[in-house]
Amino acid sequence: MEEKKSRLEAAFFLSEEPLDNEEIADILDLGSIGYVDMLIEEFQDDLKSEERGLELVKTPEGYELKVKKTHLEHVSHLAPHQDLNQGELRTLSLIAYNSPVEQADIIDIRGNRAYQHVKELVKRGFLSKEKDGRTAILEVTDHFLDYFEIDDVDEFKRQYDNQQAGRDSAQDGIDAFK
Hints:
- There is one protein chain.
- By secondary structure, this protein is an alpha+beta fold.
- The chain folds into two domains: 2-78, Arc Repressor Mutant, subunit A; 86-176, Winged helix-like DNA-binding domain superfamily/Winged helix DNA-binding domain (Arc Repressor Mutant, subunit A, Orthogonal Bundle).
- It has nine helices and five strands, in the order αααββααβααββαα.
- It has a three-stranded antiparallel beta sheet with strand order 3-5-4. It has a two-stranded antiparallel ribbon with strand order 1-2.
- It starts with a helix and ends with a helix.
- 15% of the residues are buried.
């Protein structure tokens, strides 16, 4: 049982997206969702101890490991923007780069999980969402600009393009050694 809980902890630590019960069952090689629920409950109880700095949070997409709010102000500088999961950050980046953009286009690229990402990003003030026929138009807000300390969306696009150019140059250097 302890081995399964430690593997569960490792999975939550490494996962870029929340994990649902079926994914957890696959990772732990378990066929019983009831056993998965029991392990999750025990792991959550373990984390409730005051000595622990993390908590397991249930979201509509599944479970994710987060820093307890009581510790965030002391450690958030170590990993800026970690209050957004990797899926939300990727969806937000795609929207910011193409802003304004139709939600249907984002869903086509990112898949159905992007619906929840958009919902969370709108709720947190990073995006505005305006109904447009059968879809919605998504745009980044001033809160997005303030949060990421950029002046405008064009600056975001320049930084992204420069970063990609640097990656391409690095890959060219690696390919030269092959």
